[in-house]
Specification:
With 78 residues, this protein is an all-beta fold. The protein contains no helices and three strands. The radius of gyration is 16 Å and the shape is extended. It starts with 18 loop residues before the first strand and ends in an 8-residue tail after the last strand.
Length: 78
């Protein structure tokens, strides 16, 4: 197994909560540029864990279409 190694150009970070999830059954995320700004209506979830264990609503159980994950983190300058 490979393990992360910290170096002058590589920093080890943990991606802890909060993470947010946006279901996108209409595939609007690219057009509405979700990658630039987190849209409204996201649900907070924990990673790494099954989405099905964290959601409420039968319509989202076993969802098999587009979805987006969002979080914030800082990247150190080189």
């Amino acid at each position: 197994m490979l393990y992360p190694i910290e170096s002058k150009t590589r920093e080890i970070s943990e991606f802890r909560s909060p993470w947010y999830l946006k279901y996108d059954p209409q595939h609007q995320g690219q057009k509405e540029e979700y990658f630039l700004k987190q849209p409204e209506g996201c649900e907070e979830i924990a990673l790494c864990a099954s989405i099905n264990e964290q959601i409420n609503g039968r319509d989202k159980y076993l969802y098999m279409d587009w979805l987006w994950y969002f979080t914030e983190f800082k990247i150190s300058p080189l």
